[in-house]
Amino acid sequence: MTAEAAPRAQVAETTLDSGPLALVEALLKTPATILRETRTGYGMIFRLSVVIAVTTSLVGFVMSLFSGGLQLVFVPLKLTLGIFCCALLCLPSLHVFSCLSGAEQRVKDTFAALLMGVALMGVLLVGFAPIAWIFSQATSSVAMMGAVHLAFLVTSSLLGLGLVNRALTAMNRHPVRTRLWSPLFILVVLQMTTTLRPLVGPADDALIHERSFFVSHWASTVTSPERELVRE
Amino acid sequence: MTWVGPTALCRLDERLLEQVRRGDGLRRVILSAMGTIIVGAGAYGLAFGIWRAPEQALFSAIKLPALLLSVALCTIGLGAMLAMLLRSKLSLRQTAVCMLLSFAVTSAVLGAVAPMSIALDLLVPPSDPAKLAASMAVGRALLLLHTTAVAGAGVAGVVRLRALLGRLGLDHVVAKRVLVSWISAQFLVGSQLSWLFRPFFGEPRVRPTFFADHVLHGNFFDAVSVLMRSTFGAAAPFVFAMAALGLAITLVTMLRADAKDVRVEVGTVGLLVNGALVRWRQIATVHHGGAAVMIALVADETLGRETLRVACKSAEVARDLADQISAGRLRVDAGPFRT
Question: Does B297 fall in a domain?
């Protein structure tokens, strides 16, 4: 908060407090403190994983309130596992793609940057959760709720991917380009939401469904005669 | 505890701003803002419903402040996160105060025009189900008036919020981005909540009611979609897609961080940028294009990179300046983990 047109004051190096909320605050305000901590061991990676698990479980719980029942247990579990799977699936491509643009960091540092982005995505999804809850209580349309959650997921992912890019750039001498990789990550996240279906709508008996591409799944949801949730 | 009056909230008194800046005594400001919202929006709620029936006026007087407070409640968490992410340094409590002050200004304006609106409601022909066509014509005109009043008060609230963020010391680019992100979230929540809280005005043929029948059936965007289909027919999906695209482009444009125009002087240990020293190691990249030099600063604790734009007299001067800065940068070694 400085005078207009003057360059931003360089913020003094800060240290990260212990406690989950301190980590969340650092993700939003001073992610460089997290970056420094990742160099000292695996503790920060574990803490970031805990933040991801807690936030995605919370978001999954809010998502499941639309349909209730068994979904209250299944959706938080599926969403948490799904997000971790996405992160692990996309890690090799992120590391290789960043190296192609001249990055020099280790795999562990790439993983830390990716987890920072995913954790920020989870935190932002928690911020969107009250809005999603309002919509979920006022509509019975599965397609509508799916669209709301997708919009929030994509918005949070974009902001999270921005942090991944900034974290990787801060680790290197040259800016790291992740523009090619970012759409791949979003593609994997969108496909994961289809593979782990139903995240929105009532639970069914099948744990694993037949394979389906996410675009065709969305099309079938929008045109399905059972797109309205039956509320008791 | 001293009450902060609606006029002080509208003026954004220096004492009030100092409290918000320091983060002290914010509870008092929050309670005062909530009081202004309850009284001001409540008064306009009366104006909204009084034409239909006294019961509708009472219901709307409860619902309009409840709507504004609910929107604030639902968006404060997300707003604080976005504010931190966009480098505003506002805390959760400061975000809450800023949002509530904006709604308080809107409510104060609504409360100020409420007597006029109430008088107008009482002076026009009353709602009469027996003369439905005539009543509907009057009702539509009054609804347009009330909608215009609410929109005008909303604009006043946004303008004061913009001024508040500026006077709190936020950089104007940061303030713009924070404002746009907050308004987007509030629009999304407000549209759905106002749908849930309907009716505010009431129709001559429908009995006064607190909530509409089947209140949880459908949503705001369903209603917009039905209206678009009836207005545009088969072209409705295309119009909707164009509107969504236009909105998305506008949002992205407004949220984009532009380069900051500055004047620089080359020194021995770094650059003097508008009088402030930026050391060589704080400069990440420098390049020139046409008669301008673009300087990207090294990321700070936010990992955000600020870009400065120096306008020069000619392309030669710009190239010369870029070369001088590059030479200065080469004197220091910027290693990995530069933050």
Answer: yes
